[in-house]
Specification:
- Helix 4 packs across helix 5.
- The longest helix has 75 residues.
- By secondary structure, the chain is mainly α.
- Helix content is 68%, strand content 0%.
- Among the domains are: 76 residues; 45 residues, Arc Repressor Mutant, subunit A.
- The radius of gyration is 39 Å and the shape is elongated.
Amino acid sequence: MVTFLLFLSFLLNIVSLLSIVILYSRQNRFLHIEKDQKKIITELEDIISAYLIEMKEENDEFIRRATTQMYKDSESTGPTEENKQDVSPPTQNSTKWTGTGYKRASKAYQQMNNPQMESGDQTGEMPEDPEQDPLIQHVVSLKKKGMSIEEIAKAVGKGQTEIELLLKFRQLM
């Protein structure tokens, strides 16, 4: 009986030592993972700070180029030889506008100033009655025939979202 108790005591001691070793290795593994995570975080912070510094330098370079370009533009629009007699500082900052946005804005401004112009002769305007639009009529007829939104979009050559919104506004969906 004593031998049995002695054997049981040794067995429990061995089991307890093994469990202590296993717990110690797990704890060290978590500490190692924590150190790795701290290292990764510092590396990421360094990378992000380097990226931000690079972005700041690029922005400064862009601003410098933009200011020099504006300076060059203002020098090139200076007085010509014919206008050298009347050299007075400009009272208003004049900028040369070009492009479609300028054309649309000037057209809209002219329409506001000239209300006698008919709105029907302008191109690119929406028709007054949306039901008269042939695109809407075509889409509605295709939907009534039972075609899906994808098929209608392909047939009309428009996006699926655009067709879906058009049908939702017409409450045909």
